[in-house]
Amino acid sequence: MATVSRQKSSLLGQFNEARSRTLSLVQTLEKDDFVVQTAPFMSPPKWHLGHVSWLLEVVMSKAIKDYEFYSHEFSEYLNSYYHQFGEPHDKDKRGLATRPTVDQVFEYFHMMTNKVDGILQNEKLDEKTKQLFFMAINHECQHQELLIYDLQHLLADRYRPVIKNSMHRTPEQESQAIKINGGLYKMGYTGDEFCYDIELPEHNVYLNDYKIDAYPITNKQYMKFIDDGGYDDFKYWLSDGWDKVQNEKWKAPMYWEKIDGKWMTCDFLGKRKINPSEPVCHVSYYEADAYCKWAGKRLPTEAEWEKAACWDDKNQRKTIFPWGDNPPDNTRANLLESYIWNCDEIGSYPNGKSHYGCHQMIGDVWEWTSSEFSGYPGFKTGFSEYNDKWFANQKVLRGGSFATPSISIRGSYRNFFRLDERWLFSGFRCAEYV
Ligand SMILES: [Fe+2]
Predict the structure, then answer these.
(1) Which of 49, 157, 145 is nearest to 425 (CA)?
(2) Are 393 and 325 in contact (CB under 8 A)?
(3) Ligand 1 mean position to 92 CA, how many Å?
(4) In the predicted model, what is the mean pLDDT of the chain?
(5) What residues does the ion ligand 1 have nearby, CB within 5 Å?
(6) For the stretch 181-212, what's the b/e string if a residue is b when 16 or more beta carbons lie within 10 angstroms of its beta carbon?
(7) CA of 139 to the centre of ligand 1 (A)
């Protein structure tokens, strides 16, 4: 198994990089933008900035004896869901609080950066404490991505990124399915760098032979499902999904709008026609599942997805990424640092394809799997209330999106969301039995 040192930079380097990236994401916002909550599922930018700083205090409180939090008022507002640190503020009322102010949150942000920077520079940390700080950095990366989902909801084309690169234009690709032999597969994280507790331990799963799509499902493919009455026929839908379609009047993925007979969207690239060659994005689990049923296929399990992404059959080994063990770069995957601010067209990253030939498994869109989110056999919690209390009513997504910081993604990474959520950058690819 691979044991590579993926993260060349030190804990301190990663920390400072993450803090500056958070600031760069909000650099062009107006002060008014920081406070507004446009939906109960999103959070105001001010809250994200404060919350990632508060989590640094949480880590310090675990690592430093008798650590005192900066402010009870801040802790109450910035606590997301950790009951061990008091009663959290209501999530859907984060946009109603004008205190702490935006200026105070910035002051707090810098104060915590300096505090942690000082600890990382001057203290001799034991392994457990280092892991806690790595977790805080990865947590901040998760919030950078959540912040981008929220900026899409809050501003979309009015958001002005500091860096913006053009997407690729790629000739249309034929959809194809790749056959993968079953048998025992050892899933889970295999490297020697930071990973979350939910990626461990490695364990054997038995897979039957299966086929999996070489590319994520595109807008063009998804439009056929819509045109064929996919949203009008209960027979494709799980019962809860059909209720959602009826109650929310879903007719298409989130942010899609039909204008003069054409499907349009409004995102970071502007108000524009749906591009048929991009992976479909902003679909819930229910929609992904309904599409598969309509297409006579199914979603892959997360073990099937991971084997298709990371197993090198020729060398009989698992790699950290689809292309091997080297970290992502923008020739292999469309992640946050590509700064394209959108999914790229399918076929745009031939250098990033997996050993089996599956494209874009890292980056672009998170991919829904049919697997329930729960602990692997032998799971041990790494941090109480972080992941383990969500082991019910959520499905696993794999692979990261165009908003995922590259330092925080790998083939074994497990994301999870509720089945009806679709404000994230979520798509899917199909699988089938052979
Ligand atoms: Fe958080």
Answers:
(1) 145
(2) no
(3) 15
(4) 96
(5) 80
(6) eeeebbbbbbbeebbbbbbbeeeebebeebbb
(7) 6
